[in-house]
Amino acid sequence: MVRNRNGWGGAALLGTSLMLAACGSVSAEPPRPLQAPALLQPEAQSPRDPAKPKGYNLLSMGALTQAIQQGREIHYILPIHYTDGTIYNPATGTDDKVRLRSYGDKFLAPTILMQPGQTVRISLLNQLDPEPNCNIDPSTGKPWPTNHPHCFNNTNLHSHGLWVSPTGNSDNVLLNIEPGVNFQYEYNVPEDHPAGTFWYHPHKHGSTAMQVGSGMAGALVIKGERPPTEQSNGDLDTLLQPVLANADYGGQVMLIQQIPYACFDDKGQIIKDKAKRWVCPDGKIGQVKDFDAQFDFRAWGESGRYTMFNGTVRPQMAAKPGQLYRWRLIHAGVEETINLRIRKIGNVARVASLLKSVKEQEQEVLRACTGADVTQYEVATDGLTRPSVYAKSVNNLQPGYRSDILFVLPEAGRYCVYDDSDGKDQVAGEDNAKIIGFIDAVGTDKVPDTTKFVQDKLLEGAARLTGPVRDTVTADINDGLKLTKYVPHATITDAEIAKWKQPDVNIQFNLIGSTATSPAQFLINGKEYDPEVVNQTLILGTAQQWVLSSLNVSHPFHIHVNPFQIVSIVDKVTKKEVTDGIYAGMKGTWKDTLITATNVEITLRTRYNRYIGEYVLHCHILDHEDQGMMQNVQIVLPDGEGKPMPQGHH
Questions:
Q1: Which residues pair with 605 in a beta bridge?
Q2: Most exposed: 35, 225, 325, 376, by fewest CB within 10 Å?
Q3: What is the pTM for the complete model shown?
Q4: Does pLDDT of 509 surpass 80?
Q5: Residue 16: left (phi > 0), alpha (psi -120 to 50), or beta?
Q6: How far is Cα 478 from Cα 472, in angstroms, rounded to an integer?
């Protein structure tokens, strides 16, 4: 668990929440109860200090204060600075001292709550250390190339997945906020914005991986209070919240992070043991500061570092059998795939107390996690409600993914939550099976049929509706757990694509390996990122089809502003649709991030509604993005003939 000078990194929840107090150690390890991220608290007063009215319109200030009181406007303050604390290391059974960049006063970033129709202001305060001349390569005295990561304390803010403007002081990732600079973001969340699970993190090209890898990432939840009507779809929250055991929004967050902290010797080299695993001797403090060493594609597998839930390494969680829980899973890591599985522990005595190697981690899974699987009932992907509930035992989570799942523990006992390696990791080629955490279920209830249990709970939620819409939702739930009245976007049909006659947009990832004389190149459509070039110009009000592929190494495609709907995933060789494995249940769903494996070609569709301006698409392996796997995109107005209106750039 990450701990700092202000105590544990999060507030414990009460009642029957899964984020409860300690359940007791499941092994010889010290107890580390999972904590929910604290909710970021809004400023009680107007962002403009009433005690210092000089320079402000007093009438506007009064109106703003009233808007805040009425909930139509909210203001958060989000400082960024270094925080000292500790992270538990299962290889040694002790806590490593660390010093990491963080949001707020704790390592575990606070959860930000928003509502449709709100104006949300976030004052970002960059209090990181100055980096004079960070743009200059000290070995040559010349500026660093664009795609050579540098200036690691320059930052900005990205609201990943939000459907808001990408320009000005909204979700503008082309800004550069240097140390000592404060900047206020303003998100005008539209009234029709989908409720769901999103997240926030820095997105300054060249420093993104270093900062997210240092822990700068937090949950962003859009609360939903709109029930469906005969004329309109509604928020899934209105169906689920009344029947959940963990109904608190903050307590549903499960932030997944991988912090590649290392300790360095006097020559600036990472300190390692004989097995090349990173170690932090007494007196040394772990940091994230050497991009080349800590974000090498082999580094995570060799490091011995551990995936964390809510800032906690191998946390222990308390729950009750026979209760319905919701997890808002957010993969806020930089590059490692997580194949999340929940399974009853066959023999608690086979849980290890120390894990000194990757092999020992895998053996612990094989020895201990031998009981029945707990089915995960996925209700939303990347914050957007699915057309129907999808049941799975292994949940493939790529960097940037969100997966909202429901589950019920069928009986009392101890369960392991683990990363099922399922072969080799997408990026590093490392076998990464390891236990991430434990659930201790205490109670007498038993659930012989978890699918029927989930169905009954959904029907219980639907019974709170009135009139014909209640009958519609009830019939859908009885017909294969459909969620038709909660899907936020209408399907993009063949006719809609044909209407606009836009050519397909082709995106091809390619990683050219490094040699002794040539560095690696991270390419999209054969080119590295150029901040002065707009690669894709799209027309407001139209819909379009995109085709994704990857020449070598799988890459998670992410695009800002407008989500996409998955039309087909086709094997390049057989030309048959792929509907299993990591793509099982994905066809027809809406997402904003999608792994593009080397053996498939993926067809997507998207609409360009409401917002114009410039933003980006990129690989969400963030060190790939920092090294050039990104493109600039702009949406422009049409001219009188429906063609793109000419735009200036920069």
A1: 545, 565
A2: 225
A3: 0.93
A4: yes
A5: alpha
A6: 10
